[in-house]
Amino acid sequence: MKYTVYSLFPQLLKPWTEEALLGRAVREGHISFDLRDLRDHASGKHRNVDDTPYGGGAGMVIRVDIAAKALDEVLASEPPPDEIILLSPAGEPLSQALVEELAKKKHLCLLAGRYEGFDARVESLVTREISIGDYVLMGGEIAVLTIIEATARLLPGVLGDVDSHLQDSFSTGLLDYPEYTRPAEFRGLGIPEVLSSGHHANIAHWRRQQALKRTFERRPDLLKNAKLSDEDRAFLATLDSQAETKQREK
């Protein structure tokens, strides 16, 4: 996977791409980064990339001609990007399903804005817009890093254990089950007995039910799209019945 990123502050991204798992993945040749400065496509002494908005209003807007020059540059590269993604609060919500779709690409170009964002005509130059949540940041760099981290970890060789992401929260449509490690006792808190039983089938069954229970309690909205067995539905019905009983007893 190749990631090309356009930003007004590419130096903010550089350390993130050189350390930890991303840095190792780069050194081992699994992924590569091309961090580019939007100001390289501006002219004049101050290399201004923004201007005041038509119609008035607070803040500055990144010019469409600057963005177009940058994207013309990346489209001429080899290989050209499979997707040109504008990070925007108005974009489609980032989900695990979308992450898995993007992780199948060979080259992603990510466009990080600042100030009041990009001229609206930039939307016609990209293949999609993505939002990482219903809030506004000071810039798009954190959103870019979110997409990079989420997609890169699905690529072969990036994680130490090739199967470690398969049971992650949202990968199965559910929240992940709780994990425990040493010490077995800590401040009066122990670990579930089944986890030290050595019985793999029982452990798998417990983990599935815990994933269902966590999702039921914390993100019930996910259950409507999750792949559930008859046994799963029966367990959820039990949880629902128990919740109703507790509610009546209050």
What does this structure look like?
By secondary structure, the chain is α/β, with parallel strands linked by helices. It has two domains: 2-152, Alpha/beta knot, CATH 3.40.1280.10; 167-250, Trp Operon Repressor, Chain A (Orthogonal Bundle). The chain is built from seven helices and seven strands, in the order E-H-H-E-E-E-H-E-H-E-E-H-H-H. It is elongated. The model has no long low-confidence stretch (mean pLDDT 94).
What composes the largest sheet? 5 strands, parallel
**CATH superfamily annotation of the largest domain:** SPOUT methyltransferase, trefoil knot domain
Going by helix content, strand content and strand pairing, the class is alpha/beta
CATH topology label of the largest domain: Alpha/beta knot
- Count every helix, treating DSSP H or I runs of 4 or more residues as helices: 7
Question: In which order are the strands of the major sheet placed?
Answer: 2-1-6-5-7
Secondary structure: helix percent: 25-40%
Radius of gyration: 23 Å
Question: Span between N and C termini?
Answer: 54 Å
- Supply the CATH class of the largest domain: Alpha Beta
CATH architecture of the largest domain: 3-Layer(aba) Sandwich
